[in-house]
Amino acid sequence: MYERTDGTEGNTLRDTGLPVVIVTTRGNKSGVIRKTPLMRVEHDGEYALVASQGGAPTHPVWYYNLKADPESSRFQDGPEPFTVSVRESMARSGPRGGTGRGGLSTVRRSTS
After folding, report:
1. Rounded to 5, what percent of the chain is helix, strand, coil?
2. How far is CA 44 from the centre of its chain?
3. Residue pair 2/22 in contact by the 8 Å Cβ criterion
4. Above 70 in pLDDT, residue 94?
5. Residue 9: is it exposed, middle or buried by C-beta count within 10 angstroms (0-12/13-18/19+)?
6. Considering only 31-35, 39-43, 76-80, 105-109, which range has the smallest mean pLDDT?
7. Measuring CA to CA, how many Å separate 57 from each of 23, 50, 61, 78?
């Protein structure tokens, strides 16, 4: 729905009203194109993708797909998808001040 309407519909996370973006990756095992809606966290053109999977001990599948083939990834925030450059960051601390784990990727619109 998001893509069909250029981002004017299906652009919030369930019933929360929080905006989403669409991250397109290639399956790292299957090679199949995967599209995942993720919460939109953007500042000055840089987006944070938090691979927390609700605090589970493993990352979500999209994280491994993005990490395995970042060059084939596309990003959509509005009507047109665009290519991105991806950088992995490490969490500094957990939600209660404990040690966090990696899984924060930041993406920025590619200039080339």
Report:
1. 10, 40, 50
2. 16
3. yes
4. no
5. exposed
6. 105-109
7. 22, 14, 13, 32
